[in-house]
Amino acid sequence: MTCASSVKLCYMLDVRRLQVLRAVVTSGSVTAAAANLGYTPSAVSQQIGVLEREAGIALLERFGRGVRPTAAGRLLTEHATVLGRQLAEAETALADLRAGRTGQISVRYFATAGADLVAPALARFRTEHPGVRVDLRIADGPPDGDTDLTLLVRPRDGDPHGAGDGLRLVHLLDDPYRVVLPKGHRLADRRGAVELAGLAAEPWVGSERPGPCLDAVLEACAAAGFTPDIAVECEEYATAQGFVAAGLGLALVPLTGLGSRHPNVVVRKVRGPEPVRSIHAAVRESSLSLPAVRGLLTALRER
User: Fold this and answer.
1) Threshold 0.90, pTM exceeds
2) Strand, helix or coil at 243?
């Protein structure tokens, strides 16, 4: 007897009637089975009659004051026992999944959101959902329909369904950029925010790769009336700070990327305008009902 053969029988015969048969065989009579199941004896007899017609063979025979299974009845009773156990296990597994105790969710993120956003949020998530496995990978491309949650940068007031069919955009946070200056820079000791236009003549260390994050910086600079002179290209925030500390230029770095600061730089707010990248999660519509996915969204928001 195998699980595969039991599942095949499940398609051929009604599982509920198999459980009625099992109750009759276990108790030895239709009357006792009816009492145990909360049915009437006639209802139990009807279910057995339908099952025998489906099977094309007699399943019970009279024995004394009760009944006993035929060879076919014993065979189906054995399979009914396996199916009952499998159904109970499936119900338990489904209940655990609905409660967020087990399961697996797939998450994709862009590299510059990793250290200061995804890592602490995931650490919190694992303490709250220790039985849920997270498949976490870097992905710079558009979200796909097979991933539960994808982090990406989109306009703050974009269409919530603009990520694609079957996906919903959930706004997580607005991540403002800060200017990173070398110590001793003429603006390093200035109080308050630095005017973005005042950085137009400076050499820049590019901290972003081409894409929506860099677009947010370039759009803010265009609004301030200039295009930045990028003297050093860099796609990693910590490395960009190192170039700034060496006096090779200034950099704009989002606040979530400044968790670890180089000792030889100064960080100031920017205005006129303030560059901001809006981080969203593109979530599968069907996954929004999962407590584990909602828990990860909460952890990302509160981070």
Assistant:
1) no
2) helix
